[in-house]
Amino acid sequence: MQNVIFGIVTGSILAVATLGFALVRQTENFLNIAHAQMMALGAFIGVVLVDTYGMNIFLAGAITVVGLGALGVVLSAVFFQPVRHQGGTVLLFTSIGLALMMYAAILALFGTQARFYPDVSGSLYRFAGINIATNELVIIGLAFGSIAALQLFLNGTGLGRAVRAVASNDDLARVRGVPVRTVSNTIWFISSAFGAMAGVMLGVLGAVNTEIGWHNILIVLAAAVLGGLRSITGVILAGLLLGIMMDVSALFIPTSYRPVVAFGVLVAVLILRPEGILSIQRRKDAVVA
Amino acid sequence: MTNPIFWVGVLTLAMIYSSLAMALNVESGWGGMWDLGIAGLLAAGSYCYVILTSDADLDMRFAPELSMWVAWPLAALFTGLVAFAIGAPALRLRREYFLITTLAFAEIIRQLVVIQADLTRGTLGVPNINRPFDSFVTGRDYNYVLLGIAVAAAAVMYLVTRQVGVSPFGRTLRAARDNEAVALALGKRVNRMRIKTFILAGVLIGATAPVYLFYIRAVSPQLFAPGITFTVWTALVIGGIGSIRGGLAGAVVLIVFTEAVGLIEVDPAHINILVAIEPFLVGLLLVLVLRFRPDGLFSERSAFGAGNRPSRDSAGDSRPAGATQGSGG
Question: Mutation test of the interface with chain A: which of B236, B287, B293, choosing the one with the most A Cβ atoms within 10 A?
Fold first, then answer.
């Protein structure tokens, strides 16, 4: 049971990271491999602010999230806008190039030593034989709070509706006078901020090292495909499911094999049910009939 | 300023990456199958070769101590089998779903190597790979022998992939990539061709794996992280996806460039920066080539004669990601 709780914590973080990734996939139509490097960058900037400058963890987290959200907008303008007309393949490979450059920047700025957040786990609560620490509760709360906020933004505001319009039909939105450029900037801000937030959360729970970007992009891809990229609920469920499966499997096999579990599930789902776990409609763009 | 042995090593590595990039070009450039699982195929070929040839005193559960000349083709065949096992389910998927599946399979293979420690020595790795002719030529001179082997391997790879590229099979493959509906209407068995191509690429990568091992000299699962896949892809993108010479030229440019920059003398206090230079340059090169010369150094059109295909503007560049995986429903 304890591992299920760990899994829910891992899964909430994964859901936040994957939502940011899926948002770009839906509106800009490419897989942004650099997304996970944004997570790594978030984890590192957070740890430097807290550990080196003694900042409060919430303040450090907020600064990291907003700062990296803004960085995401700048990076998209510099790297992705100029090659946008060339289609998804060029964008995908550009994002691989950007990921390598961000990885290099992380290596150069922070070195290869693993870093740790000072102990922020807080007090431990027990009910019914399950332990849960304050920081885990806060992570779950923040994760679902921000997902709910995103949901409200997308459904309740004009700009949110514009984002959804671009996601469902780019050309039609443009013709109808949706401010496509503002929408694009908004999406990059939200996506990068969600990535950064997931990065800080991952860092709080474990060690911060330079490889977490490469390690997590695979898991984020798995969660995104499992959830079916279109549905927010699907992404949340996929994140939770993957998180729980990875952590529960740790009872039977050593923890270093967690990724194998994630990919095993991914491959099985793709082959048995390529439409994703939630969607009823067959994922037509995914399968050669 | 530097000794020639260093550059012999750099050229050897460049030839190995060239071979991999040319093999990748067959399936991804012409077949339109965006394979991010090269590391996995390379791992399969490498470990097959290592297990078949390793010394029995390394305590591996299965160590037949075969001659390397027997093990080499067996490694290629085994990798072809692995490619079939991956391709059969994965080729039912399209676009990014195919790409993710191949990436996931590569990572599963790498983790399996770690888990099956009694067979592969896991994270310990296998040191001192047997190398051809090393009883005749020893010491530093062996580097020249190795360069010869790598050049020969790249030459064979060039000739084989060129033969595939200009053959009716290669033409049909490219036709199916550009317009699957037409290829199907002409009675071409597109799915069967794709799986054949996928297996062929597996065999070619498996045949290159031992050369890579001769260069590295020791094998461990860490070698087969996704990074090597991205490097091969970068080489192919720089050289030009779809062109016969593209992989060759791209890998030479990429490897010579990054290794030469590694020669810059850096204050030990700034060792972080030295570590960061290589991924930074690979990334920057990739971004710049895509921005200013998206066809790469050699375009596909230049490889097959300009008149053979409609202009890239109408047929090539507007292709969305992986639409190449077919449009039939």
Answer: B287
